[in-house]
# Entry
Amino acid sequence: MDKWKRYYVGTVREKEDDEYSKQSMSRQNKFFSELKKENWQLRTNKLKTRIEKIIVDARMQNYEKLKSINIQEIVYERKREKGIDVMLAIDLIVGAVEDIYDMAIIVSSDADLLPAIEWIRKTKNKQVMYVGFSIQNNNNASKPLYSMIVNTDIQRVLIETDLKCFIK
# Structure
């Protein structure tokens, strides 16, 4: 049933005078349009921005070098998805209670989903397939989550070559 084919994601906000944010938002909207053509339902929440601070001290490698040039702290902006895991967990449970599906396919390595996964498997006898990624590149590394692997019925771990044919 297509109404249960859902994509959960934090949405990019456009920042005034920030070309990167405009391009990111444009790419995301284009992607959303493609998903909608394939009858995916979007479940979104805005990405939250917060300022994070790292104090330079002995716990850091080479902290002496930073201290020697008078760097006491590193402040940076971080974007975080908030509430997406809760939306997904609620939908997993509601779908199981209403007997909408036999198997949930979860493409997420968020351990916060494990209580909902455990509940639908044990209480409602639903199967769960976990799809994780094992991709190593210069900017980011993605690894499948072991706790998701051992707490689901079927597991698929995709590597970079599995995904190349989908990238335009």
Remarks:
- The chain has three domains: 1-46, 47-81, 83-168.
